[in-house]
Amino acid sequence: MLSPVTTLSIDAARPPLLSVTGLTKDFSSGGRLFRAVDDISLQIPQGGVLGIVGESGSGKSTVARLVMRLIEPTAGTILLDGEDLSAKSGESLRLIRRHMQIVFQNPHSALNPRHTIHDAIAEPFLVQTTIRGLELERRVEALLDIVSLPKAFKYRYPHELSGGQKQRICIARAVALEPRLLVLDEPTSALDVSVQAQIITFLQELRDRLNLTYLFISHNLAVVRYLCDRVIVMNQGKMVEEGVTDAIFANPSNSYTRQLIDSIPRLPQRNLVY
Amino acid sequence: MTALLTIQDYRLDIPTFDGALKVLDGIDLALDQGETLGIVGESGCGKTVLARSILGIGPAKGKRVSGSMTFDSVELDHLDEAGWRRIRGVKISMIFQDPMTYLNPLFTIGRQLSDVVVAHKRAKGERLPSRAEQRKRCHALLDQVQIRDFERVVDSYPHQLSGGMRQRVLIAMALAGEPQLLIADEPTTALDVTIQAQILDLLRDLVDRLGLTVVMISHDVGAIAAIARRVAVMYAGVVVEQGMTNDILTQPRHPYTQGLLAALPDIEGGHQVLESIPGTIPNLIHPPSGCRFHPRCPRATEICTAQKPVARNIGADHVVACHHALD
């Protein structure tokens, strides 16, 4: 078992690992411009977990893709550990990509059905490193171990795994190169709640073990409250509220945030006898 | 009072190349007129198969092994197509998870709603309504689901409406035949949380105003708690626990129910420790012997592997199927 969750000391003097300023993205549809992300700024310290919540169409996934440079911003700067991502292209962009990885919402479509689990996990090493042969095998097996799956899984194909197992593979692949920033775009939305609990607990342990920094995108406010230190609420591309998670949930200052929180059906207070 | 819907020892297999999937294993449920029942469970537990079987639209290859379903003194299992036409939409209606896919993109809302209105009149052998009467009926139906801008909506195509509006239209269609029982299969799962709250409000309002009996299926315990007075928890084709929603959510007695609730992060904060249920849901071609939950159950003993637990009363309207129910 892993060590219990510890509070990370966040060094205030260090520059934030991720610093985004004035991020804006326009999409054109039918000749008209649509502003999906409108002047978003955010910072995540090393080891921090920032959540972005919002409803569908709020632009939260677009922020994730912009931060990963999967799409090009219309305006704004993205600094990863002080380095300007938006200025990079070609080889220098490829080199910095190993420090930031993303896990997508739907594990069923994120893995190539014709590749074995071994191939899926080995791919980042083949692209980014010179690790091959026995050492590569050792790494793949170690990663399966990190995500608590048996080594024999490397011979399997994605269709032989459950949704939760596939998402673990996606996480294993994302942390393969020991990135500094992990962007998680709705990583549990396609999963059942008991599996969601496994993945969330696992993400917490992983953060502590590898000192990871998370940008966690979700529409599930309860999950965000559980996992994130700070949270940003987005609505129609704009940031409507930002702050320490508990403070925002306990005392939302924005009316939209309040509406969002009030919309969640409450359960009668549980008396669990664990 | 006799129950409106009674399901007794219902077993359903689906034959596959690898053997029969034992998807429902002895379901017992009873539902009174005006009752709201929630069926909660994770994917693959059989909740949708069960709901669709009530309407005779279960899996095409599904084979009933035993048991019966009775609605308003009608044996549902022996109905022919003509018999089903007197039930579907008239006595029992259903709304589905994804409001995007159940409307025809090529026809206006008014046209599709009118079709349903006319079809019900025809099925009852009544005089078919004129265009003006159809429009009036559509107006009343959309009004019932709290769509106020009738003129705009009735001439819209599905893509011009939001997800929440489309779900309202589907609810209006389901109500067109004035059914006694509405089956709602994950009615809010595809919707945003603020829209979900509106649809849950609407369903509650319909229950109060029309005295509608509702079976709501969801994996979302919160949505179930918002609608259902009673709840049945399903696991791997078995109802493991049922009773009053409030009792079950505050005092779960089956280890699976308790595990499910402990896996939910609490929106109210309070730094709980998330518990997850170890293992994965079983393969239903070769389900575990005895209690189907035993391989994942922290309380399992020898008897659990040998003997299927019989559902037993453990309190006023609280039934649990477990050898070692929690206190």
Automatic annotation (TrEMBL), chain A:
Answer yes or no on keyword ATP-binding: yes
- Protein's UniProt keywords contain Transport: yes
The record's listing under Pfam families reads: ABC_tran
Where mainly located? Answer: membrane
Read off the SMART domains from this record.
AAA (SM00382)
Residue span, ABC transporter domain = 18-261
Gene Ontology molecular function: ATP binding; ATP hydrolysis activity
| Record family assignment | Belongs to the ABC transporter superfamily.
Designated name of the protein = ABC transporter ATP-binding protein
The organism named in the record is Microvirga brassicacearum
TrEMBL record, chain B:
Matches recorded under Pfam families: ABC_tran, oligo_HPY
| Record domain ABC transporter: where | 5-261
Q: Where in the cell is it found?
A: Cell inner membrane
Q: Which SMART domains match?
A: AAA
Key words of the record:
ATP-binding, Cell membrane, Membrane, Nucleotide-binding, Transport
Q: Which InterPro entries match?
A: AAA+_ATPase, ABC_Ni/Peptide_Import, ABC_transporter-like_ATP-bd, ABC_transporter-like_CS, Oligopep_ABC_C, P-loop_NTPase
**Gene Ontology CC annotation, any one:** plasma membrane
Is Ubl conjugation among the key words of this record? no
Which GO molecular-function terms appear in the entry? Answer: ATP binding; ATP hydrolysis activity
PROSITE patterns recorded for this chain? ABC_TRANSPORTER_1, ABC_TRANSPORTER_2
Show the Gene3D superfamilies listed in the entry. P-loop containing nucleotide triphosphate hydrolases (3.40.50.300)
Q: Alphabetically, which GO biological process terms does the record hold? A: peptide transport; transmembrane transport
- Membrane topology, as annotated: Peripheral membrane protein
Hey, which family's this protein in? Belongs to the ABC transporter superfamily.
- What is the protein name for this chain? ABC transporter ATP-binding protein
Its source organism is Microvirga brassicacearum
